[in-house]
Every structure is written in structure tokens, then in C-alpha cells.
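Exam prep: given the inputs below (a chain plus N-9'-methoxynonyl-1-deoxynojirimycin), describe the expected output before reading on.
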Amino acid sequence: MTGLMWFNIDDYQGLNKIRHSCDMNDEIKGYGWEKYDPRAGGIQTFHDTEQKLELTTEFVKNAEGTNWGIRVKGVPKAGAKSTTIVFYAGLEGEGKLELENKQDKVDSGISGDIKLGGRSKRLGAFDIVVSKGDNKYPKSNHVLAKSRPAHKARHLSLNVPDDNVWMARDVFVTMMQDSIQKYYEQYSEDTELPPWVITSLEPIYQMKGNFHLIQRTFDGPFEFDILFNQRTKKAPRISSANFNARLDHALDVFEAKFESAFAFQPPFSDNLKKYGNFSKELFSNLIGGVGYFQGNSMVDRTYSDAYEEDEERFWEAAADSLKKGIDLATEEGPFELLTTVPSRPFFPRGFYWDEGFNLIPILEYDADLSLEILKSWFALIDEDGWIAREQILGPEARSKVPKEFTTQYPHYANPPTLMLLLTGILEKFKAAQNDLSEEAFYNQEKQQVFEFEAGVATAESIFDNPTLLGTTHWKSPELLKSYLKEIYPELKLHYEWFRRTQKGSIRDWDREAFSPREGYRWRGRTPSHCLTSGLDDYPRADIPHTGELHVDLISWIGMMTRSMKQLAEFLDYKEDAEDFGEIETAIVRNIADLHWNPDEKAYCDLTVNEFGESEFACHKGYVSLFPFLLNLIPIEDTTEKLMPILELLSNPDELWTEYGIRSLSKSDKYYGTAENYWRGPIWMNINYMIVKSLQYYGEHPEATLEFRLEAARIYKALRVNLVNNVHKNWEETGFAWEQYNPETGKGQSVKHFLGWTSLTVMIMALPETIQTI
Ligand code: 6A9
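Solution:
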């Protein structure tokens, strides 16, 4: 594990906030990837106001994945001078990591390159070089500083337990405190602390260990390299000499893949100057946020009776058990997970339903990577078919979560968005196979890139390389089939878990024709929250009831069924496909028979009133849209059901705003109340689904013309409003946001939220208008 820390040392202010991990409240005016390709490299910048530094890290790696390099470039802001940078490398598990410079030259600082040599089971033999770079001696007047010959780099090493390597900053701070203390012991408490105490830590940490810190200090602008190479003949080494050529190549790869993945449409394509950097940053930070996590997860396996939620006022008893559950939870694992994260500074871990959205743009850009991530998630399905909603693996991930939120419960669900992605994969594959012959398909892609790109030669070589493109699964149907066959049994288990554990009880009241099995209820609901639905505080029936049925959940399970059916058909599992088909039909019927409220002209949750009668619980907003969002409304119902949905979407007294569709109707009594998280604010994940469904139903040949024209009108305006509002906020603040204010459009809640907010790039690539005739 390697990392970088930095701080300004003109005075001792910077010391208090040594920059290491990203934190939401840091005074940084924007930071992150400008361009990033996970197979070739990219550029990351930090506009660090607090540490008075403009920092850039250029990153390259080879296609084989064995070697990488980082060029660290810094420019102190006006009035600032000296910066110190600490690079660290720690080895977890078996193996070794050692300094290879001559030991006798180390104690007083190292003036040239620094080299670590290592070996581990997974990496084989490797080395890490931290180049000398530009390193000038500070013109300090301090007499003690003058007695030091030069600002040499420092190397320190010690043993750190595996689980603590991530705490590099704390380790460094401890060392620094020791040096400061030693200084005061030697001199006097009243002498002003000279800078070299911090930049030339005492050589008391020279034991051979698995953990190494290398500190370089610079006056003015600086530049140096960190180069990691496996000692294998398989791939040429990455060096300071070939760094620039590799970076150019990485940026070419990024541009070529980006242009072909997201072919922007008007009005955005007409103004790439305005939208170009914006969209590249959004996407680069999504894909640059992909992380590998490893460690134990906290799970409450007590299966307390209260978790059955079958008693009246069940949430009270459940709350008691949940409180105990926090302490009764046991560690499970270790698990590993490759995943995107909703937000690097604030939610740096995987969330189940976020992932299905976050992978949509990644599927376009690098399909192989999205399949690898998907597989990594599905590998977490346990023997009951459950996946924990929030993946908090290991102590580092856990350190970012208050204790009461760390425990996962095996009866809790979260929307199965990853199944939606699976449908997208099948569609994309079929499009690649059917529409065009394979070769023609690639020629066309090539052609598109030629049109955009000056570097034709590079573009050509990139497009001859499916590995670099991440399209090997499209090139080989066998590969895709065997991938899907491998995950199919777990997926089926997962699907059955959903239907079994979230089953609702359908009461035998007077409805025409409902299918008794298909009604569902989210577990884990309280009067104020339904966290498992993903829509946290969105209002439901005022008092939870065991006879409640949730319209968003039946829709999710309907989509999941359809997706399983498509998969079974693709793999030629005929019987399964038939079974799924029957369930799908029953669900579509029950969505209409159980959940459509003809008086409100909306889909609603159901609850049971004080007389034991079934009753609608209607709160118009995202929840009432779900049958539409997941395309589960039969086209025959255009006039009766789809038209009123358009009316709901386009009415400014209900869901319409100039910035996107708000989560809860302005006319609902809970609009804007309490936490006001999903009670009005605009969320990009659901807006993306709305835009896509407007397109789906609006282009449906069997829909009425009246409907299609109205859908087209809303589609066109909504698409532009969404993109422009995210763009405006990005211009103004330097950030993408978790949600947007429905009255002002202002970004709010968590900033640097590049999970589903980056779906904006998908929206830019959708057609400006839909086909109405
Ligand atoms: C709180 C506090 C440093 C809430 O994006 C992740 C989820 C969504 O899945 C969900 O739909 N977010 C949305 O309603 C954020 C959830 C964070 C919960 C953990 C810990 C962090 O303290």
C-alpha cells in the first residue's frame, strides 16, 4: 500500500492538517481526476488553499498491470514557499520491503534517488524508486538551520502491523512528535522550533520493517517521480525518461475511449469548450474512485424474533433488538470487493444500489472493467442469497462510519440495480452482434474516433486493442456466455432471497384479479424511515403495518424477474425462462390491480387502516413513478395511466422544477419537512431513469400520438435542465453534489459526490429529441 502526504512548512499552521486522505471539510477548492483511464493512467489535481499549494500528480501504468509511475508536481501559491512531501509504502502480509541505498549514507539524509526493493507472493520481486527531483536548500536565517548542509531527503522505516498500514499519517505524526521532543530536550523549551526538525526527522526509526516513509522538502515549484516496477522481463520498465511518452499515450487512450463511449448530442456537442472538461472530470472521478477493499464485515446473525416484523408496532421491538444487534454483531470474512464509491471524501465504500447506477457509464467506457466489478459484487452473495447493503470492509473503511451504522442485517434488502445493469449488458452485446457485423461495428467506432481525434495513429492502435478498450467480452460471445453461466446460480439464489424475505401479505379483499403471491414489503422500516428502499425518509404510510405493500419494491422485483428471464433465455435455460416469464406477468398484473389508485391517478403504497381494511398510502413523487421507471406499465394503459404520469412530472405544483424532477410533490404535506433528504431535493439517479423511461415510452410505436408528443416535450426540456444545473454548480463551486435544491438548483448535502451524479455524462449522450413518428 502506498500513499502521499503533504503540507506547507513556511510556518507551523500546515502541521495541524497534514493532507493525506480526502475529507469533506478540507479547505480545498476542488480536486480530483481531470482525465483518467484505469488501464493507462491520467492526471489528478488539487487546488489546496489551506496548504497553499497547487499539486498535480500524473499517473501512468502499463497495460500488463505490472508497473506504474507517478510524477508529483507542485507550485506553491503566491506568498508561500516551502512544501514537504511524504511518500510511504507499506507491505501487508508475507514478503519483504527494504531500502537498497547504502546504509552508511542514510542517517544524515539522502541526496540522490531512493530505492526500495521488495518481494511478495502476489507481486513477485519489485522495486520502488523515488527520484531526486528538484530540491533546493531553503534560505533560512536560522542559525541551526544553517548548520545543516542541505535539504536532503529522509528515509525512515519501522514495523507496522498489517491492519495499521493505512494509518500512515498517524505513524508519521508520532515520529515527528518524537523528533520535536528530542529537539527540546537537547536545546531549550524557549527556542523557536526550526523547520529542519520537521523536515529531517531524527534517525531513530531505522529498524528494518515493512513500512517506509520517504520525505522530500522543496522551496518553490518542484517535481519528482515515484516509479514502481516489477522485476520481470515481461514488460519494459517505467522510468523518468519514458514517463512523458507514456503519459501522452494514457491521455490519448482516455480521449479516444471517452469520445467513443459518450458521443455527446446537441446542444452539448455544439459547445464542447463549455462542456468538455466538465464531463471528462465528472466521469474521470467516477472511474478514478474505483477501489479495492478487503477485510471483515460486521453482521448481526442473531435472527431475533423481532426481525420477523410480524407483530403490530413491530418497529419498536425491532429497534430494541437492533440496538443489541450492534454489540452482538460478529465479524465475517475477510471479503474483498472491487467497487466504485458514491463519494471519496464522505462515503468511501461500496453501496449495493448505488453500484448499479455507477456502473452504467463505466459499462460504456470499459465494459470489461464493469463486468469485473459486477462479478466482484456477486461473489459476496452468501449461501442464503443475501448481499449486505453497505460494504464496510476492514478497519480503514470502518473508521469512516459511526458505530451504530456499521452492522449489517441479513434480512435487509436494497434495490437490485445490479440486475438492471445485467439487462444493459445483454442489450449492448446484442446490439454489437445484430445491428452490424462485428467488424463493421468496430470500423464504425474507429471512424468516430478519427473524426474527433488528431492523433490518428494512436487512435488506430488503441482501437485494435480490445484489452486496452475493455471490450474483450464483446469480441468473444463465448467469453460472455461463460461469464454469465458462472454467475447464474448465485444470481438465482439472490433473486429467490428477495422474493422470500421481502414477501408481503396480500389480503383477500375485493379486487378483480390479483396474483396472490406477488406483493412485497421492505423490511427494516420505521415510522420515519425506510433506509432499505434507498429513499431513506421518503414518506410512506404514517404508521408502519405488517400488511403494508410497497409499490417501488414490487417494481424492483418485477424488473429483477424480467432480467433473470432475459438471462435464462440468453443461456438457453428454457424452463427457468418460462418460470420467470410467468412471475413477470403476475407482477405486472398486480402492480396495476393492487397499486394503481384511480382516484389519485397514481401508483401508491398500500397499508391497512384501523378497521383492518386495505387502504392506499399516497405520496406522489419518486415512489409513485417506479412502475414507469422500470417499464412495467403495459402500453395499452397509455391513456389511463401513462398520461397522468406525464401530468405529474410536468406540473410545477407537483414534480417539475427548472433543475430536474424533485423527489416529492410540492403539494404533499411532507414536502421539504424534517431531514428533507428525499422529500423534495433533486437526485440524479432517479432523474436519469425518468429521462430513459420518457424515451422508452415516448418512442413506443403503440403509444398514442398525443402521449408521444407530450413525452417528447418533457424529455427535451428535462434533459437540458439536468445537465445545465449540474454544470452551473460545478462552475460555481468546483464540485458535483449529492443532490440539488428544488427551489434554487443549488448543490447540497455531500460534495465531491461523483457516484450517480456523474450519470450526467450519459444524459449528454442521449439524443436531443426522441422519435415521435
Ligand atoms: C452514514 C455517516 C462520516 C444515502 O450514497 C449512499 C447512500 C445511498 O445509497 C442512499 O440512497 N446515501 C442515500 O439515501 C449515503 C448513506 C450514508 C450512510 C452512512 C455515515 C458518515 O460519517
